[in-house]
UniProtKB/TrEMBL annotation:
<dbReference type="Pfam" id="PF08282">
    <property type="entry name" value="Hydrolase_3"/>
</dbReference>
<dbReference type="InterPro" id="IPR023214">
    <property type="entry name" value="HAD_sf"/>
</dbReference>
<dbReference type="GO" id="GO:0000287">
    <property type="term" value="F:magnesium ion binding"/>
</dbReference>
<dbReference type="GO" id="GO:0016791">
    <property type="term" value="F:phosphatase activity"/>
</dbReference>
<dbReference type="GO" id="GO:0005829">
    <property type="term" value="C:cytosol"/>
</dbReference>
<keyword id="KW-0378">Hydrolase</keyword>
<dbReference type="InterPro" id="IPR000150">
    <property type="entry name" value="Cof"/>
</dbReference>
<dbReference type="InterPro" id="IPR006379">
    <property type="entry name" value="HAD-SF_hydro_IIB"/>
</dbReference>
<dbReference type="InterPro" id="IPR036412">
    <property type="entry name" value="HAD-like_sf"/>
</dbReference>
<protein>
    <submittedName>
        <fullName>Cof-like hydrolase</fullName>
    </submittedName>
</protein>
């Protein structure tokens, strides 16, 4: 029996216009009322998903979120930290040097702000245009306090340029850090071993829930780890073939209430029988 549902946002719960369908909201509410934990699992910070928590009525002390691709797991209402893994300034400096050689823009994302570290003249970053829910500051890495920490480093730029440079990333980067694409135009660097799967595992252990009792729903490369860890991994119809290959089930697309369809198929319809 499924006791916890972990849901990705972009391309999954959210439609292409970044809104949530009424069918998805209702299915989430019905699952919660039936005793199932419903958790947002995203690369965004908690501030970036507040509108989702509000619309789905997931703001109480009994609700949790997995943010920064598993780097920070917390209680929604109090912001109590359940699990946390950070990156330090020395990590940022090494990653920034690599990206600078490849003309890739770098943003470092902390608990309450993001920092523009290096924007090449010909390839400016676009992360600040997409991330309007937190302040951005322009810094050099050595301007930051030694003990300041981050949850992830983001490269957000023109898709063709990013794809042409990914193959030039040094091998040691992926050997030292978790490097993943959350969108075709976005690369994220996290502490090694941290992903949505580890965040989901940490929360499940905290709640006393087994992997076999978890359903995860997603569409992108950064969702693979949680789809593989969960007993039931659901890929959206709009997901890539790679993501679908790692899923237990392929639901409808994000424009066709795919989340609601999966919740009904695996939880609500079974409870009615």
């Amino acid at each position: 029996m499924i006791k916890l549902i972990a849901i990705d946002l972009d391309g999954t719960l959210l439609r292409d216009d970044k809104t949530i369908s009424e069918a998805n909201i209702q299915s989430i509410q019905q699952a919660i009322h039936s005793g199932v934990e419903v958790v947002i699992c995203t690369g965004r910070p908690i501030e970036g998903i507040q509108f989702v928590l509000d619309q789905c009525q997931m703001n109480s002390s009994d609700h949790y979120s997995i943010t920064y691709n598993g780097g920070l797991v917390l209680r929604n209402q109090s912001r109590e930290v359940i699990s946390e893994t950070i990156m330090k300034r020395e990590n940022l400096e090494k990653i920034e040097a690599v990206m600078q050689e490849l003309d890739l823009p770098v943003d470092a994302v902390g608990i309450d702000a993001a920092y523009r570290m290096h924007y090449p003249k010909d390839w400016p970053g676009t992360y600040d245009q997409l991330t309007t829910y937190m302040p951005f500051y322009s810094y050099q890495s050595d301007d930051l306090q030694e003990d300041y920490h981050f949850y992830k480093i983001v490269v957000n730029t023109e898709e063709e340029h990013l794809q042409s440079q990914i193959k030039n990333l040094p091998a040691w980067l992926s050997q030292t850090y978790s490097v993943m694409q959350s969108h075709p135009y976005q690369l994220e660097v996290m502490p090694k071993g941290i992903d949505k799967g580890t965040g989901l595992e940490a929360l499940s252990q905290y709640l006393g829930i087994q992997a076999a009792e978890v359903m995860a729903i997603g569409d992108e490369q950064n969702d693979l780890a949680m789809l593989e860890w969960a007993g039931t991994g659901v890929a959206m119809a709009n997901a890539s073939d790679e993501v679908k290959a790692h899923a237990t089930y392929v639901t409808k697309s994000n424009g066709e209430d795919g989340v609601a369809h999966a919740i009904h198929r695996f939880i609500l319809d079974k409870k009615e029988k």
